[in-house]
Amino acid sequence: MAATVITGRTRPTKVKKQANVQKRKRDDVDVEKLEQAVTELDLQNGSYKDFTDLPLSDPTKQGLKASHFAVMTDIQAKAIPLALKGHDILGAAKTGSGKTLSFIIPVLENLYRLQHIGADAGLGALIISPTRELAIQIFDVLCKLGRHGHMFAAGLVIGGKSLDAEKQALTRMNILVGTPGRILQHLSQTVAFNVDDLKMLVLDEADRILDMGFQRDVDAIIDYLPKERQTMLFSATQSRKVSDLARLSLQDPEYVSVHAEDKSATPKSLTQNYIICPLEDKMDTLWSFIQASKKSKILCFFSSAKVVRFVYESFRHMQPGIPLLHIHGRQKQGARLDTTAKFSAAKASCLFATDVAARGLDFPAVDFVIQVDCPEDVDTYIHRVGRTARYNREGRGVIFLAPSEEEGMLQRLEAKKVPVEIINVRQKKKQSIKSQLVHMCFKDPALKYLAQKAFITYAKSVYLQKDKDIFKLKEYDFEAFAASLGLPGAPKIRFLKDDDGKKKKQASRQTLEVSGSSEENEGEENKKEKPVRTKVARMFERQNQDVFADHYKNLVTHGEDEEAFRSADAFLGGKSAIPADDDDFMAVKRRIPADGEVSDDDDDEDEPKTGGRIINLQGASQPLVIDSNRREKLLKSKKKLLKLKDKGHKIVFDDDGNAHEMYELEDEDDFKAKGLPEAQRQKFIETAKEVVREADVEDKAAQKMKKKDKLRKRKDRERNEAEKVVDEDGEDVEEDAVGFGGVDEDLLANFRADADFSDQDGEEAPTKKPKKWFQSDSEGEDEGRGSKKRKKVRKSKRDVIEPQTLEDMESLAAGLLG
Ligand code: ADP
Ligand code: MG
């Protein structure tokens, strides 16, 4: 065997070393046994009910026990055995049915059996979540389960924090949880982030991650990952779209859908109702509901961040008697985390949220989910309402539907097996806050501004909704809605106005049609009576006619202004469609003949009709009319004259020195001889594609080489530096080592404090870089020799490092700079 790399790490104490060796031996046996048991798992059996029925490693078992997880949920019982065997999985199960453990356990177990541990192993599993909050939650579950003896280094990358600090720690990670954007950022920017050996990819809330919003990021991430890997997708609304499966290159995926046969797509313990609530009553109804449920934990969903802010700010002013919170994507990361933590811990609280909180979040014991604004589709409805009634607990969902939304939404809900029942609001209990809101908006311009923004974004969201069977823009009473927010009138919105305009147009057309068919004669008369409206006529109908008239006055010549105006007046008055004297109206100060226009009198060519002279500029297709001082001056400026000249065109010369146009049309016969145009086009596309494909392969190979080279260089550098550091202070690095997987506290500052899963039960402290830096068993025998050798090397290194002369110092500085 090649000589072991001597590093700066000093020899472990004898006791520690023996313990390490023993543990490794135990692990080896453990892994072999587990591997055997996993291959023997009977997937048809279905008798695996408890976690203890599965061949799991001790650390995982400990983790499950500590979290009091004993009996598996349906999705866990089906998905975990398959995942342990390495299958690709499409997991679908209702909200709150334990999907998180269905992928966390296989991630830990499969990497454990592969002993994919330590900094040199690189990234083994990547878990992607659509939102930061969900990523944090997944990471917490991972830590809770993994901290009882597992040695993986796990990290969380969700953006909103310093990229550089994350970069350093990333290179040592074995398991990473993150959001698509940030993961991609690291993949493209962090040179030493090695994913070449990735074994597992997990997408939680997969349908959301695979939809349009994340498409580009996810596709780019997939490009970086090796094709040979296990891929698992989980969601309560899992799709089996072939295109998605192809994008992720899934191999014979197992579709695990445990509730497909159920009567409803939502949890059994969830009671679902809807109320009919016109837009203008929403605020009153919501306020009254909150007043009646002050002791509950309520989560309210709205269509946009602006609406959330307005409702939060206005309700807060009115002191509702229950702690209010709000969360939306436009908040800073710190505020978002703070809110989720507060709402999780609260007994009674009301959280106003956008759909950032719709997916995956496991707030304990939410009593009500109120969907104040109708969700864009049933999937969103299912996820929103799924924040309550989790893991067999009771919960209630209420959705506010405008009268025009009722029919469409109910149809959609029924089609997806979501049972909802109508309930009525007790009118006696209903309070009106309209006047209070008006008063508040009047007094506080900031609140009024928020109300306006809320109104506009709400109207916009309805306008942009795809499902027009539910969202019928024309049916909402926006004026009344604006008033209900405390606004004196509805802010003007283009598309609402357009719609009005369209309505008017349609209406007038309809009346014309109607009159045309039933009272044809009358219609004809109407048409006759109406003067013809030309473009010019419309121009003169402008509101600010005075301005236009002044300008117009300057345009007319020979003191014929009055007459021209008279004709314009007549024009505007609609008495006559065309001015009495057309020439007068058009008699302008200067006139440049249009293309191809031939002068009546050839002799007079150089003389403009209204005075001045005409100059034929060389290189200009149009003659230049000099009829003012400004034009005279123009003649003196070469630069300005250039603008009037036609632009030259580029010609190319062939080898014989003959000039050609840049692009010359091919001879028609030659072109025809080559075949049909379509065939030629195809051929061209094929060849171009081939060229691009070849270039792409080369580029990719070059890029890969470059990346590997950089990675190698960086590792060498890091290793050298590590050696130097230890050599210089001569201390045992192992003493400073924290956690497993070699992630020290500083680097982890960016990750969660509990990111390291170091054994808390007092077993031996794991070493910093376990695999590589460990001595092999055979080394132990010639320990004396080894240590001597090490000393020698260290000595020789120190000889070089200790600077004696200026030159030494310079070379040392150059070395440190790398
Ligand atoms: P999903 O992802 O399916 O919406 P989660 O994984 O978030 O659901 O789990 C919902 C809740 O159920 C969590 O609070 C979790 O702790 C709990 N849970 C999951 N599996 C079990 C289990 N086997 N036994 C007890 N509780 C569980
Ligand atoms: Mg989940």
TrEMBL record:
Q: Which residues form the signal peptide?
A: none
Domain Helicase C-terminal per the UniProt entry, residue ranges:
269-441
A Pfam family? CTE_SPB4
EC top class named in words: hydrolase
User: Single GO cellular component annotation?
Assistant: nucleolus
What residue spans carry the Basic residues bias annotation? 703-716, 787-797
Q: List all Acidic residues biased stretches.
A: 597-607, 728-747
- What's the catalysed reaction? ATP + H2O = ADP + phosphate + H(+)
Q: Where is this region: Disordered?
A: 498-533, 593-614, 694-818
Domain DEAD-box RNA helicase Q, residue spans: 49-77
Q: Where in the cell is it found?
A: Nucleus, Nucleolus
Q: Which domain of life is it from?
A: Eukaryota
Q: Which Gene3D superfamilies match?
A: P-loop containing nucleotide triphosphate hydrolases (3.40.50.300)
Entry EC number(s): 3.6.4.13
What keyword terms does UniProt attach to this protein? ATP-binding, Helicase, Hydrolase, Nucleotide-binding, Nucleus, Ribosome biogenesis, RNA-binding, rRNA processing
Q: Show where the record puts the motif Q motif.
A: 49-77
List compositional bias (Basic and acidic residues) regions by residue number.
524-533, 717-727
Q: Provide the Helicase ATP-binding domain boundaries.
A: 80-256
**Principal localization?**
nucleus
One GO biological-process annotation of the entry reads: rRNA processing
What this chain does, per the entry, is described as: RNA helicase.
In the record's own words, the domains note is:
The Q motif is unique to and characteristic of the DEAD box family of RNA helicases and controls ATP binding and hydrolysis.
Task: Give the record's family classification.
Answer: Belongs to the DEAD box helicase family.
- Provide the protein name: ATP-dependent RNA helicase
| Organism expressing this protein natively | Melanomma pulvis-pyrius CBS 109.77
